[in-house]
Amino acid sequence: EQIEKGGYKHFMLKEIMDQPNAMRNALRGRIYQPADVPDKWEIKLGGLEKAKEGLSADGISPLERMANASRLIFAACGTSWHSSLIAKYAFEKLAGVAAEVEYASEFRYRKPLICRSDCLIAISQSGETADTLEAIKMAKQHQALTIGVVNVVGSSIARETDAGMYLHAGPEIGVASTKAFTCQVVALLLMALRLGKQRGVLSETTLNSYCAALNSVPDSIEKWLAALTDQTRIVSKYFRLATNAIFSGMGIHFPVALEGALKLKEISYIHAEGFPASEIRHGGITLIRNFVPVICVAMRSDPAYEDMKQMVQDFRAKDAAVVVLTDDGNTDFSNIAHFTLHCPDTKLELQPLMCCIPLQLLSYYIADMRGCSIDQPRNLAKSVTVE
Ligand code: G6P
Predict the structure, then answer these.
(1) pLDDT tier at 55 (50, 70, 90 boundaries)?
(2) Using alpha carbons only, what angle is made at residue 377 by residues 176 and 158, rounded to the nearest 5 degrees?
(3) Rounded to 5°, angle at Cα 27 from 29 and 3
(4) Does the beta carbon of 126 lie inside 6 Å of ligand 1?
(5) Whose CA is nearest to atom 4 of ligand 1?
(6) Which cellular component appears as one GO term in the record (predicted)?
(7) 150, 384, 385: which to mutate for ligand 1, most atoms within 8 A of CB?
């Protein structure tokens, strides 16, 4: 087991550190520059190009059906539900398509109105989550197209869906998902960009600039990891005895806040909640007082950045212990936050890939300092195959 951990104390830490490589694997062969044309990028998603046998008699590819879908329905559980929320923002903006996100467990027990023209996208690391599998079966009963975004090759969800993409993240052993999450976001961004092209929403120039930015994310994270590890360890020392923590972000960074809170809950057993920043004014604000850690994602490209800045000032005025994740070189929080962590710059829709890394590390080091069973937290299963 020590050999499998590659010298790290826990699988979770190994998997966090493995993310640049895992993301490269998720991108490999799918995003590339044709040799003879500088600055031009292509995205090729083999799993969406050819219909599985029996899917479509008229030769329409899953990609074409997706491009003509009246809406996308993302169905998932846990961390995979958070990557679905990020995907919703990306698909709406980059592919101009209506998208909804469902907890698979809620979806399957309702009577949702599903049409033939809908496309259900099931997101799952294991490919075995029972509720997600049932959501797929329901969508199929209504003859909607079903797409799987799955890590485990040959898993039930991979087999049950009409078409899909594998993450190629490699085996994830730690119960709390890290590299599968970032690879899900990578795969979904690729899909959103490809669909944006198919639907004529993205100009060639915009598509090229997104592709170049996405392709450089793994390198940016790799260069950043060593310094980030030192910084998050320092912050973790201050928070290791906390009993509650608040995570806050706006827009595409709200799901990042939710995922940050989930990671902390899962492995450190500290109660944590994620809020859309402004929504916190409608209740959550009562929890903010002396020494409560409040972790805010506030990127300058966020449409409501100025609001977020104001919120951070409010949190500080209430004597919370404030950590801000913001852009490289941004000094707006130097006199407000107790700690500021700077993320490498990228485009807004790709920023969650960067912002989630400090939150994973923060949870990891806090849990380690509390002596928790990090790779196998109490009561949690890697995949929930029971109903
Ligand atoms: C369990 C795991 C989570 C995971 C969720 C969904 O709750 O502990 O880490 O996010 O299941 O699993 P899936 O394999 O469908 O992504």
Answers:
(1) low
(2) 40
(3) 105
(4) yes
(5) 78
(6) cytoplasm
(7) 384
Measured between alpha carbons, how far is 40 from 42 in angstroms, rounded to an integer? Answer: 7
The pLDDT, as a whole number, for residue 57 is 54
What gap in Å lies between CA 197 and CA 174, rounded to an integer? 36
Tokens 């050999």 belong to residue: 3
Mean pLDDT across the chain: 95
What is the widest separation between alpha-carbon atoms in the chain?
A: 64
pLDDT, one tens digit per residue, over 107-145 is 999 999 999 999 999 999 999 999 999 999 999 999 999
Find out whether the beta carbon of 360 lies less than 6 Å from any atom of ligand 1.
no
The percentage of residues in the chain with a pLDDT greater than 90, rounded to a whole number, is 90
Closest residue to atom 5 of ligand 1, CA basis:
78
Q: Is the pLDDT of residue 77 over 70?
A: yes
Pocket test for ligand 1, best of 12, 81, 107, 126 (most atoms within 8 A of CB): 126
Ligand 1 within 6 A of CB of 132 = yes
Q: How far is CA 217 from CA 214, 252, 255, in A?
A: 5, 17, 19
Centre of ligand 1 to C-alpha 304, Å, is 31
Alpha carbons within 13 angstroms on the beta-carbon side of residue 307 total: 14
> 270 is written with which tokens?
């500290």
Indicate the pTM of the whole model: 0.96
Question: How many A from CA of 280 to the centre of ligand 1?
Answer: 27
Query: Per this entry, what is the length of the chain?
Result: 387
* Distance, CA of 344 to CA of 381 (rounded, Å): 33
Q: Which two tokens stand for residue 163?
A: 């078409």
Overall average pLDDT of the 228-255 stretch:
96
CB of 155 within 6 A of ligand 1: the answer is no
Tell the residue number behind the tokens 């450089």, with chain if given: 216
Reported as a single tens digit per residue, the pLDDT across 348-372 is 999 999 999 999 999 999 999 999 9
380 lines ligand 1 (CB under 6 A): yes
Say which DSSP state 345 is in.
Answer: P
Ligand 1: centre distance to CA 328 (Å): 32
pLDDT value at 215 more than 80: yes
> What is the spatial order of strands in the sheet that 118-124 belongs to?
99-103, 71-76, 118-124, 145-150, 163-166
